[in-house]
Amino acid sequence: MRAPALRPLLLLALLTTACAGDEAKPGAGGGDDGADGTDGADSGLPQPVPMTAGPPVAGMAEGHIHMPVGTPLGGYTSRCKCFGGVSIARDELDNRDSDYTHSFIPSFGVQTRPHATALWLENGDQAVLMMKTDIIYSFEGLVSALEDRMTAETGHDMTGQVIVATTHTHAGPSNYDKGMTWFLGGDRYDEEVFTRMAGQMGDIAVEAWSTRQDAAIGVGLAQDWDLEDRVYRDRREDNDDLAFFDDIPAGPYKDPNLTMLRVDTADGTPIGMFYGFGIHGTVEGEANPLASVEAGAHTELALAEKFDDQMVVGMWQHGGGDASPAGVDRSFARMESIGDLAADAIYALWEQTPTSSEPINLETVGRAIPTSRDDIRVTRDGTTDLFYAPYVEDGVPDEILYNEDGSIASPVDEFNTLYGGAFCGDDDPLIPGFGVGSEVPPYSSCVNVDAIGFVIAGFFGLGEPNLPLQESEWASVAASRMGPLPIREPDGTIVEDDVLWAFFPGETTAMYTEQFRRRAQAELGFDHAIPVGYAQDHEGYLLIPEDWLKGGYEPNINIWGPLQGEHIMEGLLTMVDEHLLTTDLREPIDPANLYTGSVYGDIPQDGRSPDPTPDAGTAATAVPDELWLPMPEGFAAAVQPPAEVPRVQGIAQFQWFGGAPAVDDPTVTLERQAEDGSWAAVETHAGRVITEAHPDILLLHLPDPLYPSSELQAHSYWAAWQAVGHVRDRSGMPAGTYRLRVQGAQLAGGDAYPWDAEPYELTSDSFELVPAEITVQLSGTTLSAAIEGPDWGYRLVDVEGSSRGANPVREATARWTLDDGSTTEEAIVLAAEGGWGVAEITVPEGAVDLTLTDAWGNSGTVALGAG
To answer: Is the dihedral of CA 457, 463, 465, 471 positive or negative?
Structure first.
């Protein structure tokens, strides 16, 4: 989560915020039984039983999460109207509001829809559900809801056996989390948004369970797979002088690991995969109002097209907290480039990953770790003892951060705060007078959470905050042991071993994930421990203490200072040890109810009533002046496609009137006409239908009037398809007759979600897709050729080209016209240079012009001697 400079705004809020009461109610949490002072055999509680190995049985499913347009997007505090969102709306967007926002600016439409992937795995003894979706971070309430749903649907007790991980996109729906801290990154909790998300994720999970079959699974490991930083790069310069590991020198460092969990049928037919590496979920900034899966899941889109049939593909995060996306090009095209640049290496690892249907042990456990001030401690298996000094009102710290040998001085008295501190990491106090007592960086900029709590409560209409903040007292984690499994090591050798998957509630950073791998091996004996971040819950950035003390941006966003991250790590390691995941015993999950998780207060809910829209399903006849488009100034908006649309350089637009976003979530499908006159949806190489869920088609919503949303509004929608193919054939979509089909809904009745809806359907005018024009240049014997992207282009055309510039032609047929009217042809291979395809050629004697045609039929002509 990114935060802007907040000093003046926070100071003003602290002086003006009013207070009121707030009721509390119990919340659900995962857990496991821990030491309670009784002898286990005499406690009357369920006791461990021997595990039974069994052959793996697996099912996988995937789908898109549909949310109303207008739902706020998570990740940037500056989208809050209290921290700059008003300026963004006024200067870069428009000032609409939405029934689905409280204090954030609303989303406007869709570039790509959030994607969810589910794996159900069982072995006859236990089951686990592993899920991933494209949101900013996980929330323990989603985990609990899925535990309840899957327990009811499957008959398995899924308490503590559900994993929810995320890709950390900064353009996904966000107001599903009850943790008040995170309202600053995603707006106030909305019960309907949570219900929609949990319900759709549950549907996908049930589908995975219903498709289970005898399976073969295996794990693949690779390292240093992106040495040139083409996919992702280290963004944290603050710790470049920190040589924490003896064998990793100081300097830029990113998590080098790529992992693969491959799932096949027992006879070897591919079912799907989870793969993981660390990359921050950002590409577009806070002014982007379109829902998008951003960097992470664009790798899924590219990887899926490596296969000839549909594969279920899901990405997990490793040390992505301090790793920025790389890629080439700009904006949405850059997202696609990250996928293209990553897909080959991930596919290669999948190919090299062995699978087995032999019996495995399987055990999964979730636990809520206490994280109140006096619970936090870091011992590193007894080699150190880091803890916070007791809180002293108006205490004066000794300002000694390190011992003479360079180790961290303990007890830590610089973090003298009763309820936690936020916005640490800088030199100067963020809000003078509200700090934690230290004047030494990185503590000097910290702000007491009790002060921040009043700010948040005021901004989001909550009255007086309950302190301590509920989400600051517990951190939910999970771990799953599988094995023995065949494992492809980074050096290519194959071994058979158990794998420990560890799921952390926050933004795991590079040193943090490496520390976990080493500690899991040294303390628990797991040679193959794989950390996954942004899972189960959210605690902000997770860093080891030495890294936190280097300051910078990342320490801004956690609550419990330098010791929080590794304390959570130790809690997970202890859970694995106490829960006997290192043995062949299976222990019941939290029979004494010791790890109950966070308890959340009631959160006010904004009422909403969708507009009736009697004109839904009719095409627009004029482009409204208020229509905001993600295009440069001068772009010509239209309500219908032109008669001809050239590949790459053309766009098909369509505008229509639809239902209110609460009930209308239009699906826009690209269709092509067959020879018999029938129409069929266009599919990608791997068999996925091209819709607005993918980067191919943009979808935007426009209310009229723009505000307030409480007034009766008309709702129009705009969709556009730039004539670029999907991953494999970007400049070579088959010529023919195309159109856009819209399927939506309008209000038919009801006074609460889910409202009754009546479907509508309409299509755009048809259009002919025609070849692109190749720009051909001939200078002496040097031939240059490129397909020029339009100045409004938003799609990736070539990773060595530009969405709004030249894209190289690599292979073509050259047809020379001679002065006697005859022609001659030759095949030419061109090398990509600066966006152009370039080749040295021999010009035939008497040639007067050259026509170059690529394999797709795109062509261009240059007269001899023309530049």
So the answer is: negative
